[in-house]
Design goal:
Helix content is 39%, strand content 10%. By secondary structure, it is of the alpha/beta class. It has one domain. Strands 1-2-3-4 form a four-stranded parallel sheet, sandwiched between helices. Helix 4 packs parallel to helix 5. The longest helix has 13 residues. The protein is globular, with a radius of gyration of 14 Å.
Length: 142
């Protein structure tokens, strides 16, 4: 399951393609295509409440072997992780799923809940999706 700010919806689809080329089955947030068309959609409270988007994506985390968080720079924070991604990380941690970050998490001075991200013991991919194969057997789909 790919997680991250929906600001990076296009990047999610690129990551999906790359991971599929590496032999993985990949899920993306259920509204990724809608967010490409309307980047502000995931900030619309009515939309989020009406669609139960959070529960849909939490269920996808539960059905996955692990999550890959696309933590690109955003809002002048290197390794940005938003609130929804933090919740997905928490669910993955609770369920014993593998947690991958594309890059190092931000510092605690840049993001107040960075400590909680680090406590989840994420595996850092150092910007290279191929590194995931060191931790996931391609015969078992993610």
């Amino acid at each position: 399951m790919i997680c991250g700010s929906m600001y990076f919806a296009k990047e999610m689809l690129k990551a999906k393609k790359t991971l599929e080329e590496l032999g993985h089955e990949v899920r993306v947030p259920s509204d990724v295509y809608q967010c490409i068309e309307n980047p502000d959609l995931n900030m619309d409270l009515e939309y989020c409440l009406d669609t139960d988007i959070d529960k849909k994506d939490f269920n996808q985390v539960a059905e996955s072997e692990g999550i890959v968080v696309l933590n690109y720079p955003k809002n002048n924070i290197i390794g940005y992780i938003g609130g929804a991604s933090l919740m997905e990380i928490g669910i993955a941690r609770h369920l014993g799923k593998k947690i991958f970050l594309l890059y190092n998490p931000p510092s605690e001075k840049d993001l107040r809940y960075a400590l909680e991200v680090k406590v989840s013991r994420p595996i850092i991919l150092n910007g290279d999706f191929k590194n995931i194969n060191n931790y996931i057997d391609n015969r078992v789909r993610s």
